[in-house]
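Action item from last week, closing it out:
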Amino acid sequence: MYFNIEEELKKLPAKPGVYIMHDDKDNIIYIGKAISLKNRVRQYFQNSRNLTTKIQQMVARIQYFEYIITDSELEALVLESNLIKEHRPKYNTMLKDDKNYPYIKVTVNEPYPRILFARQRGKDKAKYFGPYTSGKAVKDTIELIRKIYFTRTCNRNLPKDIGKERPCLYYQIKQCKAPCQGYISEADYRESINQVLEFLNGNYSLVTKQLEQKMNEASENMEYETAAEFRDLLNSVKQIAQKQKITSGEIEDRDILACATAGDEAVVQVFFIRSGKLIGRDHFYLTGVELEPKSSIMSSFVKQFYAGTPYIPRELILSEAIEDQEIIEEWLSKKREQKVYIKVPVKGEKEKLVELARKNASMVLQQDSEKIKREEAKTVGALAEIGELVNIPGLFRMESFDISNISGFESVGSMVVYENGKPKRNDYRKFKIKWVKGPDDYASMYEVLTRRFTHGLKEEQELKDKNMSSDFGSFNRFPDLILMDGGKGQVNVALRVLDELKLNIPVCGMVKDDNHRTRGLYLDNKEIPLDRNGEAFKLITRIQDETHRFAIEYHRQLRGKTQVHSILDDIEGIGDARRRALMKHYQSIDEIKAATVDELALVETMNKRSAQQVYDFFH
């Protein structure tokens, strides 16, 4: 498709909307919004503009752009958020985490209300408490409420269904007062629910006094087991009360947000404050932030995070001012159906909370960067070591092959793929051996490699004929290095296949010692030793283990389908009686393979002819 950027820039309307940038493979690489599409999009292509390195790289890849006109900047903001979430463009600052926060739902609109776990805040007449950062904490709190206030858990339609069915198990274990049987009046049950609402609003003093009183009464009556139960409930309430620390004399719901950056990564820490209490905190990772100002990072986070969360607090307290603050406030206010304020404090209690959130974000990022460094040493660093050992600069993709069988029965081949030092499981492949009969690993490997690369060449040609990118294929992506599970013999098989198909790909054998442990690589008729303490050795070992695992797992699946089958069944002239006699006389298939014709002939039911047939099969 021919697209003249200069000409298309002249056609841009001076209206609000969303613009979408594409690269030469038709991938969406950037999505943005604008008050005026004409002014905003043209800025990317003006040399006088001070663009960041990241944006310069993005602009250099733009093949064409498209745009969607909206009626207002607010509509553009909503559309931008939705499109970014759907397409996840490479050059947008992206929120990596997509988390859901649960609520406690009290169905106060019912005559006999229930206390429920809810994933979303519905637009109904129920009361919602939260969101909470821990699903387990919500379930524990609901269970505690049931034990203290004896609330029902059933879905029965009360009072319509009162007396229609017998009471459930919770009544038997004294955790429900059976409103389904009319054993408690609607007024008394509603009083219990009112106490539940007080509890969820943070008023713990009443319930702690009640539990202390019941514990003491049970103890005085020498009902020690009952007293212990009340003691445990009391401790649970105190733990919840301790976690919900008072952070402010005000009762507004607010989120405290601060970010920290390092290279291309950023972390935003969020403190969730509800009714003046800190009910939890969480952190979120963003990528593609290199050289981005924190104001831009925070703006991207706010738009992506609050587009997905069902609850919007009254205030967002941020560590720095953000772009488009007024329009984002308008958007959040519409979602909340009540005015939302975005503030950046410079002093006082709120500023201290922001600073605390910033310190937490920095700590998380530091811990994560150390983890990333360790991970890079195990993957990218190890790959660089291997590339240096085998003299392949820029080594990226490696494919490893193995054959698995039980003395030749149901032979299978496995192909595992590592890219940038990490397994790429979508590209793993299984091969059921079709051309080879009996236990011949070399012939089986020849079949696997021939099928793999023949398929790849065919797919490559089909994509060329259709003028399609190689990204649309799977087998057509050839490795920078082939790893064979074995030494010289397996390497020679691979080289023979590549030579026949006129492919030039380096091949290494993964050589093992007498204890079946990796000791080096076999390349160009010589062995390259590996440092057992080096990352290259560890990566090669992981690849070898993964190749074995994948092959054996596939073989196990096939064995499960065929159930009991012996390699001896495949030998002509060996029936059930002789097979059982051979397995009774010898401890394993390997012992049968090692036996001479004369030794085999001595086995019960065997003769010279059948012994020769067994010997010939294995040799």
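Closing note: The chain has five domains: 5-88, 103-202, 254-367, 397-562, 567-618.
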